[in-house]
Amino acid sequence: MKGALSRANNIADLRVLARRKLPRPVFDYIDGGSDDEVTLRRNASAFEHYELVPDVLTDVSRIETGTTLFGQRVRWPLMLSPTGLTRMFHGHAELAVARASAKHGLLYSLSTMGTTRLEELAEAYGGPKVFQIYIFKDRGLTAEFVARCREAGFHGLTLTVDTPVAGNRERDRVNGLSLPPRLTMKSMLSFALHPAWSLPAVTGSKFDLANVSHRVDALAAGPISLFDYIGGQFDRTVTWRDVEWLAAEWNGPLAIKGIITPEDAKRAVDSGATGIVISNHGGRQLDGAPAPVDQIGLVRDAIGTGPDVICDGGIRRGSDVVKAVALGATACSIGRPYLYGLAAGGESGVDRALSLLFEEFERTMILAGVNDVAKLDCRHVRRPQELW
Ligand SMILES: Cc1cc2nc3c(=O)[nH]c(=O)nc-3n(C[C@H](O)[C@H](O)[C@H](O)COP(=O)(O)O)c2cc1C
């Protein structure tokens, strides 16, 4: 492992390395949130308000960390969230992330907005994988994804429901980068000509929303950019009925990502979901939304022990995962922590991020005196009144 990566002691150090490597607009695209970034900050700081309450003098010579997610066995309760435009952060893109994820025995989510074709990822990657899907205006495109994922052997789907419109990411506006991106390929290229970073050097191949680009060629009668096509696909009419439709169409493990309330969690399960991803899109959509960690207990109480509950957003330490699982989550999910690693050093950087988090997780389990994740429960975590 290269010097700088091996000297990174935590996710915050990897973030500093990523900031050095990337042009500011690209770093800000990863790092930023919507409006005043209140939710972005709160997602992480909310974990500080929980104390870990240890047992002592238990045998912690061996720690059982494994669990099951989307019906797949994983090494510890963590998964990698879907992130779009990954090739912009490192030329090896999703394949680098997926390889590191497989090395760590974790579950990887490929985004619809990814820059690697789902078939290519499935071929190159033997580990457990889910595909993050949207219900687009063009339901045919969504149905096509379902069929392609089944064919390619994806183990589950995650339906993202917190993006009826793009969040107001002001850093991106200031930098001239919007989401969904409004950049044409030409402007994307010109944007990329940053002195410390060049798009062709970083990508080594065509930069593309690889899973949807064929659709534009087929459907666009006039001159429409790929990003305009996708931007126009976000559908504000989507309701629970559409979730029922998707659940029937897929007929396999399906998580709904972007749930905040126990009522919606219950509706999701009633509509056919097998899992809930408590998420506010990493503070990139509705600013002011509660931190996922604060919703775990409510959601778990509402849906019982059966469905997966994944706490997504704000995880920066392995101890955060211990807290979330003690509160009732099946697992946690991370976006920026692995992207900082990717930007800092490609596959080795993702590997470093996952190693650091795992070491922290395991050490926290030992110090908390809990030798099996299945034994973590609410008595190991407490939220003192004065910190509310
Ligand atoms: C650069 C970036 C791109 C993202 N792209 C997507 C996406 O395409 N689909 C999606 O459902 N969520 C997307 N997300 C949200 C993540 O899946 C996840 O919810 C979020 O990153 C979790 O918060 P964290 O970064 O604090 O771990 C993205 C997040 C980032 C940082």
From TrEMBL:
Q: List the active site.
A: H281 (proton acceptor)
- Residues binding FMN are P82, T83, G84, S111, T160, K257, S279, D312, G313, G314, I315, R316, G335, R336
Gene3D superfamilies reported for this sequence: Aldolase class I
Xref: Pfam families: FMN_dh
InterPro entries this protein is in? Aldolase_TIM (IPR013785), Alpha-hydoxy_acid_DH_FMN (IPR012133), FMN-dep_DH (IPR000262), FMN_HAD (IPR037396), FMN_hydac_DH_AS (IPR008259)
Q: Is the keyword Cell wall biogenesis/degradation assigned to this protein?
A: no
Task: Identify which cofactors the protein needs according to its UniProt entry.
Answer: FMN
Where does the record place the FMN hydroxy acid dehydrogenase domain? 3-386
Residues binding glyoxylate:
Y29, Q132, Y134, R169, H281, R284
Sorted alphabetically, the keyword list is: Flavoprotein, FMN, Oxidoreductase
Single annotated GO MF: FMN binding
What's the family?
Belongs to the FMN-dependent alpha-hydroxy acid dehydrogenase family.
Its protein name is: L-lactate dehydrogenase (Cytochrome)
**Taxonomic source organism:** Sphingomonas palmae
Task: Give the source lineage, highest ranks first.
Answer: Bacteria, Pseudomonadati, Pseudomonadota, Alphaproteobacteria, Sphingomonadales
